[in-house]
Amino acid sequence: MKKTIFYIIDTMGVGGAETQLLRILPHLKTYDWDIRLITIKDKNVFREELESAGVNYSSLGYSSGYLAFIRNIRKLVAEINEFKSSDSVIIHSHIVSSNLFSRFLTMFLNGNTVLVNTVHNTNEGSALRYLTYRLTKNRVDYISAMSRAALDVHRTKKVSRTDRLHLVYNGIDLKFFQKKEHVREKMRKEFKVNDDFVWLAVGNLSPQKNFTNLLKAWKLLIQMPGRNARLYIVGEGVEKDKLQKHILENSLDDSVRLLGTRNDVQNLLNMADGYVMSSDWEGFPMVLLESAATQLPVVATDVGGNSEIIRDGSSGYICPPKNVHALSESMVKMMELPVDELEKMGRAGREHVRDNFSVETIAKQWNDIYESLLQQK
Q1: Residues 6+ apart with CB under 8 A from 372
Q2: Residue 19's pLDDT is what?
Q3: Residue 280's pLDDT is what?
Q4: Distance between CA atoms of residues 374 and 89, nearest Å
Q5: Please, what's the b/e burial string for 46-62 (b: 16 or more CB within 10 A of its CB; e: otherwise)?
Q6: Are 262 and 228 found together in one domain?
Q7: What CATH number does residue 363 fall under?
Q8: Is 129 among the domain residues?
Q9: Which residues of the chain have pLDDT under 70?
Q10: What local confidence, expressed as pLDDT, does residue 227 receive?
Q11: N or C terminus: fewer CB in 10 A for the chain?
Q12: Cβ pair 95, 123 in contact under 8 A
């Protein structure tokens, strides 16, 4: 009997959940799963990568209009029911709105459905969302959280059944993200950074990431004598104009650049000397795994699963969120370390990721989970 997984996610845009799916799906195919990826909205920037990995994908077309969305839901229901008549079928959704959608979807499917939800953040949004989670919690067979912090939120709020709530980390492709000296030299020459200490930050330009706090911390940093440093921020989002205005009004444009969307983050990580994350909340951010895998020391706020990836004092520094002075002081502290200490931090970060978060290890874990769920059904 064939085994099929329908993955459901809002979009396949640039983000941690999307990147995790992109990396893990080829490894799951080695366990003979037929993978089908469904996006609720039309956005998919990874079409070529999915096609090369042999992953079938389609969109429900929510962004194309309500009628098209309803029509495509009917098609999806028919498709899943057809597979269920002859195959073992798993439905696995990612991110809160897709999780709630998948629970709604199971109401229209024939027979028993194995449903898996994955929580990617410690903040799932409004009270209404948490209420809906609570009211539909019996429809889910297995709900995974990406970090202990996210797990604790669901336990505290009692929005998920504790017997079905589990911790499953993200996985990282260690072959794709690794330190490469020739890439570092090439990128630093291209950006003309010379001997400056280069900081990199990557993320959606949204309130969650609190880049305003980072810019305030940066202003304190560069006001200190002898601080030759640059900050590059990668990403797009609703706060782009606000951040650019802040940069100009505070005369930071000589040392800070917003780079927009980039498809060479692994190269930028190699160019940098340190990575910084100023978020107010997180789940289990892929970019921290990527930074550590590239042997890049990290300064990050103590939110979500950050402290599970970056060990304070070993592979970087963890500081309280929304604290300009603490963030700035942690960055300065790292910049003052000798080169050999920075390299030691980088090696410790990669070793921790290698031992706990390799994509091969996580893919096998998910395969075992799926097989167990099918047997239980």
Answers
A1: none
A2: 86
A3: 96
A4: 8
A5: beeebeeeebebebbbb
A6: yes
A7: 3.40.50.2000
A8: yes
A9: 1
A10: 75
A11: N
A12: no
